[in-house]
Amino acid sequence: MSTNQLIDFSNSISVDQSIYDYCVITEKCKEYLWASKNYSSIPYYTGVSHYTSVFFDKEIIKIVEEIGPEKIAMIISDNATNTCVV
Fold first, then answer.
1. pTM for the whole thing?
2. Between the N and C ends of the chain, which has fewer C-beta atoms within 10 Å?
3. Do 35 and 63 contact (CB within 8 A), yes or no?
């Protein structure tokens, strides 16, 4: 996908969906959407709810491995209690 390409979600998003965007900011302060994932259809019986820090931990590790850990300086998330590992 081109970095200048717009993504039209207007026909695919409804109320009560769990959509998470993963953005990358380069050392030159350019921001890119790395991935936008819809976790709404992940059932709880998989053993890990998509609303827990364990789930987010695994998803972030996958993305770090895709990008390359040597290229990552830090990871920032919102301060929601479900994304924090205690």
1. 0.63
2. C
3. yes
Per-residue pLDDT tens digits of the chain, which is 86 residues long = 445 555 565 555 556 677 888 888 888 888 999 888 888 777 665 555 556 777 788 888 999 999 898 888 888 877 666 666 65
What does each C-alpha distance from 38 to 25, 27, 68, 69, 72 come to in angstroms? Answer: 21, 28, 23, 24, 24
> For the chain, how many residues are written?
86
Token pair listed for 41? 């259809």
The encoded tokens of residue 75 equal 């990871």
Domain boundaries, the chain: 19-83
